[in-house]
Amino acid sequence: xxxxxxxxxxxxxxxxxxxxxxxxxxxxxxxxxxxxxxxxxxxxxxxxxxxxxxxxxxxxxxxxxxxxxxxxxxxxxxxxxxxxxxxxxxxxxxxxxxxxxxxxxxxxxxxxxxxxxxxxxxxxxxxxxxxxxxxxxxxxxxxxxxxxxxxxxxxxxxxxxxxxxxxxxxxxxxxxxxxxxxxxxxxxxxxxxxxxxxxxxxxxxxxxxxxxxxxxxxxxxxxxxxxxxxxxxxxxxxxxxxxxxxxxxxxxxxxxxxxxxxxxxxxxxxxxxxxxxxxxxxxxxxxxxxxxxxxxxxxxxxxxxxxxxxxxxxxxxxxxxxxxxxxxxxxxxxxxxxxxxxxxxxxxxxxxxxxxxxxxxxxxxxxxxxxxxxxxxxxxxxxxxxxxxxxxxxxxxxxxxxxxxxxxxxxxxxxxxxxxxxxxxxxxxxxxxxxxxxxxxxxxxxxx
Amino acid sequence: xxxxxxxxxxxxxxxxxxxxxxxxxxxxxxxxxxxxxxxxxxxxxxxxxxxxxxxxxxxxxxxxxxxxxxxxxxxxxxxxxxxxxxxxxxxxxxxxxxxxxxxxxxxxxxxxxxxxxxxxxxxxxxxxxxxxxxxxxxxxxxxxxxxxxxxxxxxxxxxxxxxxxxxxxxxxxxxxxxxxxxxxxxxxxxxxxxxxxxxxxxxxxxxxxxxxxxxxxxxxxxxxxxxxxxxxxxxxxxxxxxxxxxxxxxxxxxxxx
Lengths: 448, 257
Prior knowledge:
By secondary structure, chain A is α/β, with parallel strands linked by helices. Chain A is built from eleven helices and 21 strands. In chain A, a hairpin with a 2-residue loop joins strand 2 and strand 3 (91-92).
C-alpha cells in the first residue's frame, strides 16, 4: 500500500514535470474560457448559475470520522469487488481501500502513485482523450485534480470481478470542490469491468467535477458502470471520453440518482472498424433535481454498431435533459446505430427535454432514434388492478418495471442490486409485492 | 341464489358530455350458471363487462349491481378482483418488464391477503401455474416472459384464460375472448373456461359470434341492443341469431315499442 510519503519520495526520482505542465495548461485553458454560459448550444438546457455563482474552496483531505466510515461501508462492494479504491474529497485513502489480489497484468492504483513511474501508462494516455479543449469543466479538472484512479489491464488479460472506484465527498460549512480523475487503459484483447460510484457524506454543498478517460485496444472489452448517488445539495459534472479501437466492445451503464444539478457528457469514439458501443442510462430523480445527459456516439469508422437506451423517471419538480448525438463520419459505412430515450413523468410539475441529434455523412448506414415522454399508462394500471393489485402498488410496480428495463441489463451484480433496492425503496413499494423478485425472474434478459 | 343482480344500470363515458352507453340493463345471474350476451358492435356489451369490473372510464349514472349480496358499484376495481370477479380482456394489455410469473404471484397474493390468508408458498404457486399451463396447453417459457409483450392476439387471449384459471374467480367476465382465435385455440380456451364451471361460480360471456357457445354451453343467451337487454332465451337463441342475424330482433323490439 502506498503512503503519501512514498509518493513524494518517488516523485523526486521520476520526472513529473509533464504532469505539472499538464495541470498548468488545464488551468490556463479554464482561465481563458471560464464556465460555459447557457447561451452556448451545448449548455442551454442546464442552468449552471447555482454552480458558477458559488465560491468553492478546494476540498481538503479528510480520512477519519464516523460519517466517512459509515458512507464507505454503505457503498462498498466488499468482497464482490476485485479491488476497491476509495477517494475522499479527491484524495486516495489507502486505509479505506482494498487492493485485493489482482491477477497478473492487472494494475489498479491511484494516479499519484502512477505518476511516480516514468513507464506508467498514465504518462502515455492521460488527457490524450479528454483534452482540455473538450469543455471548460475538463480544463478545470485537468488544472486542479489532485489524484485519481488508474486501471490498466495488460494484453489478453481479463479480470472477472469488478474494480470499484468509490469517490466520497464530505460536505463542510463552506462549499467545496473536488476533481476526481479516472484513466482506464485496456491493452489489446484485455477485459475488465469497472464501476465508478460517487456519493456524499453529509448534506452540505459540494461540487464533484469528474473526468474519466477510457481507451480500449483492439479486441478489448470493457464493462463500465457509473453510479451517481451524490447528496441532494451537491453538484455533479462529469465528462467521460471513450476511445475504441478495432473490434473493441464497450458497455456502459450510467445511473443518476443524487445531486441537485447533474451534467454528464459521455463521448464514445469508434475509431476503428467493428468497434461496438452499448450505452445505457437511468435517471431516477425528484424534488428539484436536474439531470442533463449529453451523449455522443462518434462513428469514425465503418462497420460499427452502437445501441443506446436512456430511461428517466422524473418525480416532483425534477427536470431532465437528454441530448443524444450520433455522428456518422464520412466513410463510416454500415454503421448500425439505435438510440432510444424514454421518460416516465410521475408528476405534472416534472419536465423532460429529449432531443436526438443525428449527423450523418455516409450513405449506407442504419440509424434510428425514438423518444417517448409520458405518465404511467392508465391501461396498464387498470389491468393490474383488475387482477387485485392496489392502485398505488400498480403504479409503483409499473414505475419499477420501467426502470428495471435498464437495471436488468447490468451484469455487475452489486450495481444492479443497489439500484433495484433503491428503486423499490424510493417508490415506497409495498413489501408484499416482493419487488426484488421481479428482476430475479428475468434471467433471460440478462444476456441482452 | 343470485350471484349477480343488475338492476336498471345506466352508464356513460366518464368525460364532459360523455355518451350514454348503458341505458337500463337488467340481468340476474345465479351461481352455477353461464350467461352469454350477444349483440352488434356498439350495443354496449363490452361496456357492461368493463363497468362490472370497475373501469373508471365509465360513469354509472343510475341503477345498482348486487354481487354476492353486496353493493358492487361502491367497490374499486381491485376490491372487486379480490372478491372474486375476473375480467378477461378483449384487448389484453402488454406490461413490459413484468413477468407473467411475477404478475400472477402479485395477483394471487392480493386475493389471499384480502381473505386473511398467508402468501402462497413458492412450491404451491409453481404447482398451480404448471397445472393451469397444462390445461391451457401453454409453452413453459411463457411464465418468464413479460406479460403479453410481443404476444400474438391468440396468445394474449389464451393468457387471459390462463390467468383466469389461476385466479379461480367466482364470477368470470369474458369479453370477446373468442375473437382472433383459430378453432384449435378456441377449443383450448373453452376447455379452460369450462373447468371453472361449478355450483358456486358463474360465467358471463360477451360475444359477437355463436361459435364459442358450441364449446361453452350457456344456460341463458341475451341480446343487447342500444344499451339494453332486449331479448333473452336459451342457447337456441344464439343459433337463431347466427342463422338470421340481428335484424329480426330489432324489428321485434320496434314493434313492441
